[in-house]
Design brief:
By secondary structure, this protein is an alpha+beta fold. It has helices at 12-25, 31-43, 84-97, 108-122, 159-172, 181-189, 234-248, 263-271, and strands at residues 6-9, 54-59, 65-71, 77-79, 103-107, 125-137, 150-153, 194-198, 204-210, 217-224, 253-259, 274-286.
Amino acid sequence: MHPESWQLTDDLDGFLARADGFLRSRPAAHTVPLTVTDTLRRRGLHYYGREAPLFGTLAAADGTVVATLVHTPPYGLCLTPVTVPQAAALADRLADLGRRPAEVSAERESAAAFARAWQRRTGTKARVRTRQRLYRLDEPTPPAPMPEGRPRVAAPADRGLLVRWFEEFADAIGEGPGRDAGAWADARLSYGGITLWEAADGTPLAMAGATREVAGQVRVAPVYTPAGLRRRGYAGAVTAEVSRAARDAGAAEVLLFTDLANPTSNGLYQRLGYRGVADFTVWGFTG
């Protein structure tokens, strides 16, 4: 597989014209590029950052797309499954263009293949930052017992809270400054994409979000409870509610990612009826 086999572009519409069928063929495995490109189409190419995104497709001899990439700086490269030669070809192509992704996220073997190829090609150091598991909702199982409180879809009056909690969430998972929290809140509020768990007096206790439905899949994210309110069941209750609502709205697949280093969240989501689909790895690059 030669480097020029990867077709790279900053044209979102052109990319989707080539890749949409491929991405929709495995909506669970391709949940991230599906939702990211849908967001870019709706909110603009600079929704995730100032630098223009890059998109890529790899086609077989008959023109059938077999792999894609989406890169939205300052966030990392999102890569669908690739072989070792395909990963090496991509590393060569990106290096020749002067593209320098800070990290790559993909299914475990593909992420490792690209990280090793990138390290060889550029001399940068590569290390694992996060190991994740993609889960799919199987049989919804509400928490028992349910905690105090009730769910409520966030409204424009909650914008300040959502901005603050999103910034706290990003800091907690190590993202730091990146996406504009206000733009994120506005995007989610535009379609009722955040649900709060609140006390009887209306005090917000936790939140869970869900992406728009694309290709029959919805991904639950983010899930956040402020530090002083954790371990009281609020995250499980609001996640169960968001998951139920997505299923009731017609989503064929309800998905979420967890950090495999966090046994608490992995255990919680399994108790709610989620089952593992695939493991993903995020590799970071320095130097």
